TrEMBL record:
PANTHER family: SPORE GERMINATION PROTEIN B3. Residues 23-198 form the Spore germination protein N-terminal domain. It is found in: Membrane. It is a lipid-anchor. Belongs to the GerABKC lipoprotein family. The keyword Lipoprotein applies. Keywords: Germination, Lipoprotein, Membrane, Palmitate, Signal. The keyword Protein biosynthesis does not apply. Residues 219-376 form the Spore germination GerAC-like C-terminal domain. It comes from Paenibacillus mendelii. Coiled coil: none annotated. This is Ger(X)C family spore germination protein.
Amino acid sequence: MHRIIKLYLGLLLLFVLSGCWSSKTIQHMDYATAIGLDYKDGFYITYIQVLSFSQVAKTETMEIGKSIPVWVGKGQGKTVSEALSSLYRTSQLRVYWGHVRAIVFSDAFARNKQALQQAYDSINRYREIRYNILVYGTKEPLPKILTQQSILNLSPLDTILDSPQDSYEQQSEIAPQYAFRVISEINEPMRATYLPTLATTDESWTENEKKKSMFLNDGAYIMQNKEFKGWFSLDDLIGSKWMEKRTKRFLINVPAGDNPHIAISLNNPRYRIKPYIDKNEVKFNIDVRIKGNVEEMTENYSISKLEAEAAAVVRSQILHTYRKGLPNQTDILNLLGVFYRNQPREWQRLNKMNKIVLKEDTLNKISVKITLIHTGKYKARI
């Protein structure tokens, strides 16, 4: 009798268990991989890039070189959340946000403080979206950015929009920016926060003599003390890479100018910012140390002369970038942030006196030490 009762109880439990009734098969979901945010005429306009994972997954039957279709949805609303939610009306399938890898702000959106605050709150509040997503700005139409293909017609996930690290390690110009760094930096007083900007060009690559459009970083938006400071080109920011610990490699010409004789790759810079007070004004000395390799040399130079001339090039680039921020008091090199963290009492005192101002002589001295490790198969003179 007891066995029969146990059997009935077991069957009853099987019926009341919920199981996986609410689960979805992976092919029956829209996987958002990138978000574009725009602002126009009082409305937030959102775009989402959707890819079919069956076409971007690396399998044995994957056909390399076959163009992968990119779907882009567009929504609109009075808030960022409303604009994103409006996409549900026409998506046909459930939209899954856990695979978002990048967010791109339009020029109008990046310049709008209220829009940025709304995006910050809406996106970071939503539980499916992670903190390690990449953040960009752009001056180009967002649909164009979100439908950009990769080289060899690989997945859009294999572009610098979603995977910038490989390119950055070979040519370190502007470091990739992640959402968690933006959240940290934008709330730190005196800290300059970079938003790398994406553009496209069809002047570099061709397929069967047909021009192919590709991504490139053309500069960055900079925000400081939660205020938009402006857009700066790659040339404006040419010295910032030497004040970035994530810089891996960058090639410089020596001497700088129209007739260089040597190409040197410089790797893994290390720097130190030293603030000090002079007559109730803050001043800075910068010490930079970099190792490098000779990549090309058409005239024979001694090692000591190579190192000295390479150091002069780096020094001039740092000074050039510092001066680009002076007209609107943009601390591109993050000098004041170091002063704020290291000497908070002095910062408070000078701030009350309105003495924290960037001037031509605020950056007092730039010391650069270049050490050449390799000169290639050919040897330079000692």
